[in-house]
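CORE FACILITY INTAKE
Project code: CF-77B
Contact: R.S. (postdoc)
Sample description: multi-component assembly, two entities in total
Requested service: structural model of the whole complex
Turnaround: standard
Below are the sequence entries exactly as provided by the requester. Do not edit them.
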Amino acid sequence: MTNRATREAYGETLVELVGEGLNVVAVDADLAGSTTTGKLGAACPGRLVDVGIAEQDMVGVAAGLSLTGRIVFTGSFAVFGTGRCYDQIRNTVCDSDLDVKVCPTHSGITVGEDGATHQSLEDIGMMRALPNMRVLVPADYRAAKAAIRIAATNEGPFYVRLGRHKVPEVYDESFEGGLPYAGVLRVGSDVTIAACGVEVAQALAAADLLERKGIDAEVLDVFSVKPLDEDAILASAGKTGHVVTCEEHTVRGGMGSAVAELLSERLPTPMSLVGMRTFGTSAPGDVLLHHFGLDAGGIAAAVERHLA
Amino acid sequence: MRVRTTAEVRLVANDLRRDIIRMLEASSSGHPGGSLSAADIMAELWFGGGMDFDPSNPGDRTHDRFLLSKGHAAPALYAAFYELGWLGEEDVMSLRQLGSRCQGHPDNKVCPGVEACAGSLGQGLSIASGLALGLKADDSPRRVYVLCGDGEMQEGSNWEALMFAAHHGLDNLTMLLDFNDLQIDGHVTDVCSLGDIEAKLGAFGWSVQTIDGHDVGAVHLALERAKDAAGRPHAIVCKTVKGKGVSFMEGQAGWHGKAPSHVEAAAALSELEAERARLDQEVCDD
């Protein structure tokens, strides 16, 4: 099985969408090679606008292009492509409900060696707090393709969280996702591990570790963090009675918080949140997953602590 | 719509000022200073042939496009839309009240003719640039107009947009800069000076004209010149007086975001009425 990063799906899928007749363009900020929107520019000249190192302008220009009937995807790294231009995303894109898809890459702690300034750990929280914004966190290459397609074919603002970390593939080409969508990837009865993004593969591996200890974990991929697939999450939590969430994002306001908001109102369930509680640091992505307790071993340990 | 003569556009500007005062008095909240300073520019754009648009179709995307970047001048925009019949009396008189089409700052979701929400400064120029780029790519002959404030030019994002528009040679883009030299904390020159704004805009690759922003004939001429010049985006620096047309508001930073009381509104309307009588006479003399 090949390991691929979710960003690898980005430019490729945009090229496919253009081929299918969608009026798709991308606006990037000097990172078209890294985000892979450069593939769109190479395959379809005129479809990629590079504004230079100017993230605020990137979102403003995207907003303007959307007013000419285009479906506009933005680039940059998640930390800059959300934080540096948050006001533009909030006040221009979301409040105006424009057809702009905020899809930066290099999200989360697994950005790795570049260190804390480049590791976006608050983006899910910032984006899901915004009215009109939908938030998708794909677990692998195929899920990323599905997420980009969903964003392109549903009008209005989206945030798709893409990464550079190569992750094991969880899905085959038949995966389409949904809005909302959370899927059970492993059926279990003792505890629900709800994961998103790169943490889905880690959660599946954690479930294998837990099985050896006699713990039967259900693994849920929370593909759409907003809207949440409430039925799927409530069904799983209702069955197992325990929920552990894991994400390469701060536990303050991320996917785990979204699940906690749902359960606290509808089905109070004992929970533990696995995620970041500090800024990150420099190291290879897999080393950081281990260091911060976000790898399979860390998740399994958190589940054991939760059930103890 | 019949394009008005210069004398008639002056009358429209007077109407806009009257409506601005009326709606701000009714709402007891809002921004008179920067709305009044922009009234002549707005009158020329919407009624003097500055922009080509379909007055029977607010939100029409097949003609020229307009963005108000200095969103706090919303009353000036609403006054123009009111004169066009896009907003009714109940709309403008419910400014800033629950359920109104006339939100405190323009909102495209509820107000016909508004392209995008405005109010957070330094965003309209980027949006206008993207729009202009898209229209060019579509080989559209249509133009994009954006009204910015001078204080707003302190936002760094505007300078990103200025670079971008020049880089792409967006000669279908015209920025009107309502240069009233006042911001909330005082004179722009004192708070954080823009320096030689014309030289800066020129150095960024824009064609630059400086005019008296209250001379509707000058605004008209500058807009026509901008239509003829190819290869570069156009900046029209409109020297204006904040609060223009109401003597006690003119040049006063304190009237940036304060609505007139009933007594003050009555005084303002009486001044504007006297001005109107004078302008009416001019039209007759024409």
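Facility notes:
- The two ends of chain A are 35 Å apart (CA to CA).
- Chain A has two domains: 3-168, 182-307.
Invoice: internal transfer
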